[in-house]
């Protein structure tokens, strides 16, 4: 079985990845399960750069295959903010409540027709030598709500309204989110290429 380190400490993100990756073919390990894993500084100017940094630096350090993702929210009316700073938009990394409060304040006077936004996901697979072997990306388009709606998901999910459902990710069942989210769309691009790659390695 192919062993793959998922380069995240985000438990909820890891759950989504484990549900979408073929676990009968791949043994997934979280960073928390790996002794000696490192925190990689996300100094890239784009999601793609940060995903590559997290994958390649961790892979070289551990000597293992690493799949990393960088994702975030871009809001058109805010010049694509919070962007790569999505997780630390309000200052403290991973403070979802503060991040949502700051976004609501920034969007307070923005009318509905200008509240469009996008969830973006960039995946990067690195081999143990730190070489990028696969990349994939996708996004999901919606708009920012005026108030939080729902308690499911994480991050900006309670504020991100999906056009097709007229409800936020925070108000949708995980099964629905898994079918239409930015991360699932990127993974659907990634998985077939990944399986072909590991088949070639095994030969």
UniProtKB/TrEMBL annotation:
Mg(2+) binds at residues 41, 70. It catalyses: ITP + H2O = IMP + diphosphate + H(+); XTP + H2O = XMP + diphosphate + H(+); dITP + H2O = dIMP + diphosphate + H(+). InterPro entries: dITP/XTP_pyrophosphatase, ITPase-like_fam, RdgB/HAM1. It comes from the Bacteria. The keyword DNA-binding does not apply. Pfam families: Ham1p_like. Its cofactor is Mg(2+). It is an enzyme of class 3 (hydrolase). Its EC number is 3.6.1.66. Keywords: Hydrolase, Magnesium, Metal-binding, Nucleotide metabolism, Nucleotide-binding. Substrate binds at residues 8-13, 71, 154-157, 177, 182-183. Homodimer. Belongs to the HAM1 NTPase family. Pyrophosphatase that catalyzes the hydrolysis of nucleoside triphosphates to their monophosphate derivatives, with a high preference for the non-canonical purine nucleotides XTP (xanthosine triphosphate), dITP (deoxyinosine triphosphate) and ITP. Seems to function as a house-cleaning enzyme that removes non-canonical purine nucleotides from the nucleotide pool, thus preventing their incorporation into DNA/RNA and avoiding chromosomal lesions. PANTHER family: INOSINE TRIPHOSPHATE PYROPHOSPHATASE, INOSINE TRIPHOSPHATE PYROPHOSPHATASE/HAM1 PROTEIN. This is dITP/XTP pyrophosphatase. The gene is rdgB.
């Amino acid at each position: 079985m192919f062993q793959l380190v998922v380069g995240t400490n985000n438990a909820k993100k890891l759950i989504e990845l484990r549900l979408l990756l073929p676990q009968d073919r791949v043994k997934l390990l979280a960073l928390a399960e790996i002794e000696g894993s490192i925190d990689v500084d996300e100094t890239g100017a784009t999601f793609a750069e940060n995903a590559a940094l997290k994958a390649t630096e961790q892979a070289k350090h551990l000597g293992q295959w690493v799949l990393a993702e960088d994702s975030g929210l871009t809001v058109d009316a805010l010049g694509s903010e919070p962007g790569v700073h999505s997780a630390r938009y309000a200052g403290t990394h991973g403070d979802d409540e503060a991040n949502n409060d700051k976004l609501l304040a920034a969007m307070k006077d923005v009318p509905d027709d200008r509240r469009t936004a996008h969830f973006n996901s960039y995946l990067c697979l690195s081999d143990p030598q730190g070489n990028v072997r696969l990349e994939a990306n996708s996004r999901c388009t919606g708009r920012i709500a005026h108030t939080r709606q729902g308690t499911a998901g994480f991050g900006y999910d309670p504020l991100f309204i999906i056009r097709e459902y007229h409800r936020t990710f925070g108000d949708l069942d995980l099964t629905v989110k898994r079918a239409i989210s930015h991360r699932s769309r990127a993974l659907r691009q990634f998985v077939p290429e990944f399986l072909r790659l590991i088949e070639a390695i095994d030969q």
